[in-house]
From TrEMBL:
Residues noted as binding Mg(2+) in the record, renumbered to the chain: E65, D123, I125, D126, D268
Keyword Metal-binding: yes
Keyword Endoplasmic reticulum: no
Superkingdom per UniProt: Eukaryota
Protein's name in the database: 3'(2'),5'-bisphosphate nucleotidase
Pfam families, per the entry: Inositol_P (PF00459)
Keywords: Hydrolase, Magnesium, Metal-binding
Lineage, top ranks: Eukaryota, Fungi, Fungi incertae sedis, Microsporidia, Nematocida
Organism: Nematocida ausubeli (strain ATCC PRA-371 / ERTm2) (Nematode killer fungus)
Record-stated family: Belongs to the inositol monophosphatase superfamily.
Gene Ontology MF term list: metal ion binding; phosphatase activity
Cofactor(s) it depends on: Mg(2+)
Amino acid sequence: MTEITEEIFKCVMKGICCASHLAKGAPLISSRVKSDMSVVSLYDVVIQMIFCKLLEKYPLTIVSEEEDNDFYKDTLKALQTNNISQEYAYIKEFLIENEISLEEPLKPVCHSLAGTGMEIILDPIDGTRGFINSRSYSIVAACMKDKKVLFSVISCPKENIVYYKWNMPENGLSGYPHRRRVRTYSLSDSPHTSYSDFLTTLSLYVAISAEKTHSSPILTEFLDRLSKLYPVHIVRMDGQGKYACVATQKIDIFLRLPSTKIQEKIWDHCAGIDMNEMSIVTDLHGIPIHPCTPPAYGVIASHSQIFHSLSLNILKDLLM
């Protein structure tokens, strides 16, 4: 279950990256008023088609608003002919560059939840009037199974930022247990590079001191063992910014080994520990550290209980 969901998650994110770059680069935006007086743009329809194409091989249902109406059919037909309007020319060139072929039959969509099986809830352009008028808008997707959300994604192309969250039940290291709180990444200069940047954020971000005097064989061995269990991205930082990054989920683990050469001071830790009230901050014995008490035996901080416990177990073995 987790493996196929991870695959679908990454496929949806490819769609998010493609849709975001397609929308933010739009030279013109044509639209129509639907029977319920809401507005639909050409990009609403094309983005829905992109998701239908990317997800066509998976056993799931796509739930989206845009109907299989005349506008939908006309759009698909125009993309398959030599329509020379600037808007269609831009879209067709984008699809070719990103190797997306919108050919019939596309995966059908539903307009309401079935409540069973896996379902992708898609809003191609959330805030169409904002999109048309060069204001803010979003591209939104979520995955549900049996009325439980497995993951969710909100892209804000005008702000160049994508938010995502992984909700699969924590079961060891499977899936992305460190992404159960919202994570972000920035849209880059192309769908490919944006997707590559997203994949990097799935790694385990570990912060250590930038000072060479804080390095040790134990730290090197810890990072080596951790990287054999999960992809690791090492971030070297000075100061209490490491604590702040844990609190805001920009860093997943902050490790500071105990040292006989350094006497810890309260001003080196107080604010950082306080900011991590919702995280787990302990010494290397696993004893919680209070903001008013300087750590006596190192620091390990994480917003993920799974990776905090894993790190403690590795360190206990190394420090025996």
